Amino acid sequence: MTAIVAVHTVDGFAMGADGRRFDSKTNALETDEAQKVFLFDSETTRLAYAWAGVTQTSNKDGLLYDLLAASQEILPVAAKSGRDNFAFFVSGFCAALSTKLPTYMINLPKDELARGIFVGFFQGKPFSVQLQILYPCTTLLVLPEVHIPADYHKSVFSGAESIYPKYETLKPKSGADAIDFIHKYIQECVDSSNPDCAGIGGHIHIAEIKPDQSRWIIEPIGK
User: What architecture is the 4-218 domain classified under in CATH?
Assistant: First the structure.
């Protein structure tokens, strides 16, 4: 479990996450200082993104895939090749990502391996994209859900159901409201003793994304 939250207001987007990460094989605590939110800027695209689920794994032959490393490699290429068309940017990213993942995987506990969220601006217009990495019937499927233009909204992309009800009716109106909402929600998940919060903890980091700039409100440790 991890906590990742994105909020869109009239001022732009904010995205935050906790810093706790576990080993995907042993489930042992790896670190409380993991960076889960990442920024990307190009001539046409400015965004933040995060992944939840099994983002990296290895087998006896070595590294099988790494969604974070793949995203960092693919985004500059997709942004350049799809600079004039948002649909080309998204489809190009998904196609390239598919080449970085195994075509088949068996014995998975569920069809969904991981999910990614990408929010920001393409040629100055807001967008939100969520990607699912699925293996229905063991065969890879990269499924994007695109919202453009994005309505003002909040997305608890990953978090704790026990904590969310008190935040459900809150509607951040500004960038400052969004940052406050994200920090309070994740901090309550971190501090809670509820079982569905057990995997959430560590250093909270939050980024703000506007059409003309991206910046860290709370930087990841080591940034």
Answer: 4-Layer Sandwich (3.60)
